[in-house]
Amino acid sequence: MTSSDSVRVEIQRTERYILHDAIAHGGMASVHIGIVEGSFGFARIVAIKRLHKEFAASTRFVTMLIEEAHTVSRIRHLNVVPTLDVIARGDEVFVIMEYVKGASLNYLVKQKRSEGRFVDARFAVPIIAGALRGLHAAHEVVDADGRLLNVVHCDVSPQNILVGVGGLSRVIDFGVASARGNIESTGADEFKGKLAYAAPEQLTGKPVSARTDVFATGILLWELLTNEQLFTGETDAEVYTAALKREIPSPLDVLAALQPDGWEARCVEIAPLVPIAMRALQRVDTLRFETAEAMALELDRTRIGSPLAGVGAWVRAVAHEKLVSEQRLVAAAEAGVEGRRSLWSTDGIPTRVL
Hints:
globular; 41% helix; Phosphorylase Kinase, domain 1; 6-stranded antiparallel β-sheet; alpha+beta
């Protein structure tokens, strides 16, 4: 965390937003704990995405971020993190989002890999199924006239799946989503998404569809089953080639070849999930699941998944240190709110306009 990340920024509008410490960093923005304050002492913890200044100076990147907010605002689903507001102040741009107490799938997987352990299939299934349902909601979103917007996330990856302490998995970051009318947000020659989680049609510049996100989610499932990365390389060019041409092995074959601790029991555990992953990973898009919802239903039929309470308990255990650290930041932000509430009179009428 740099010194600039911890500087609090007050953004005045109808409401009052206060930026606190960063909890995540990405290539385009950092995400901070924030407070939104309203009338009569109302306050709520939010997450605030703060565009990096080098990108805030770019009209194209600002447009991309704003279009993310417009897109997500139309998606109303438990498995999608909603955007609450967009603020431009001076040379900075902020997106206000619902705060999710939990951890990214990326963080959770890295923790398990560092321990040399698999993600239990009972937790992998509901996490992936939840993400699929959020994606399906996005794929089905319509505009004010009821016309399908043809939203495709195009950046489904472990970093963009949050799993809350209640066990619910949620999709974030539609900033590179492909929707009707956002042609100007990215150049025609710019790849959108992450190479290691891209479908062949993305990599070759062909039209994308809901099945594009199904392919990416298939990669997530494959990697959860094997505890390995599917498409790797020393350079972007090698990853690109692998994603387009490398044979996609069955997770069972990967485990048999590597023989990690407990691999035989793992093969038995994941056997019903392997055909689902392999169907999602068909390079010919018409051979994949037609919709994200259809893939989620197939996962449901395996009856492997744990209840959400079990997933939540697992998240709290795996991400304990992160959650404790983040809670300190939340508590500090809330303490500031309590101090400002002392400015209000006991009958609820403000003694000072905030």
